[in-house]
């Protein structure tokens, strides 16, 4: 499987943030954190001088920090993560439609502002470790020809990604082969593979796990958004760094849900040294029509729908069910080497 959004999808979807009435996460004094009220006239990155925290010796197997942040910024990020974790624990079901823009500096259009493919699809999640990822539309860039301008067109023979996780295995719908491929998860990934995927920010918000895995800072390009939180996460683990350079997480302040995630290619470098080629490869996901449900209430009415999708993937007529060998490598494919904010389709 090639799609990073659901890489470890059976277990990165854990803890999606609820969109029910905004709850208040108490601090040690029992008072709301009030992130939005700390300084409503100033953007986060404007609050912190960049002299940074003292350098510390890195443990073995941990990448060196790509930047330094101040103690004030670290405290601010801690509050965001704590609030996020508080909200995440309330989510039992989540579903959303997504749009995806893929930029490719090697095989795509030469401009960093023009994406190579545009896709639409859906994701679904149920605690603790069940999920669905399905692409419904893919359109590819078609360069201008004769009097016809550049545009985007589907490829009729192309097969869209569609897979499901039931917490025990990944089920991949291989349309050309007419096979429902079953990728068993190894014991150590059951119940947590989703949270160990490259996009835990969309699907889970465990403060300590995120901090142990990523260097975090307020995104330098946040601009003047007053109702959003923008964070950057740079990998600490070499295995993550081999997949992507960093990830941007754009959080809706009102619902405290990520409304977009940007995954930057491991070699992303839009302003290279003289003589080197720029790399602007990146992939952008924007999430629409987000629905979340707490346990009980409406959730109970959705159980049968989710069971059909997650617990019992249906074998299409004339297909074969094929169990794959290997420890769940269906999810270990490539995070698309493209992520960033499209200039036209993805408004801030």
CATH superfamily membership, which one?
Answer: Lipoprotein localisation LolA/LolB/LppX
CATH class: Mainly Beta
> Helical stretch count?
6
Total domain count:
1
Provide the structure class: alpha+beta
Average pLDDT rating: 74
Shape: globular
Q: How many angstroms separate the termini?
A: 30 Å
Profile the largest sheet.
Answer: 13 strands, mixed
Evaluate the radius of gyration: 21 Å
At the fold tier of CATH, the topology name is: outer membrane lipoprotein receptor (LolB), chain A
The CATH architecture comes to: Clam
Q: What is the helix content?
A: 10-25%
Query: Per DSSP, what share of the residues sits in E-state strands of 2 or more residues?
Result: 25-35%
Query: How many β-strand stretches?
Result: 13
Secondary-structure element string: HHEEEEEEEHHEEHEEEHE
The low-confidence runs, each spanning 5 or more residues with pLDDT under 50, are 1-54, 327-348
Keywords: Signal
Protein name: TIGR03009 domain-containing protein
How do the helices and strands line up, and which of them pair or pack?
Layout lengths: L8 H4 L58 H18 L4 E11 L13 E10 L3 E13 L8 E3 L8 E4 L3 E6 L4 E6 L15 H4 L3 H7 E5 L9 E8 L2 H4 L4 E7 L4 E8 L17 E12 L4 H14 L8 E4 L25
Parallel strand pairs: 7-13
Antiparallel strand pairs: 1-2, 1-12, 2-3, 3-4, 3-5, 5-6, 6-7, 8-9, 9-10, 10-11, 11-12
Keywords: Signal
Protein name: TIGR03009 domain-containing protein
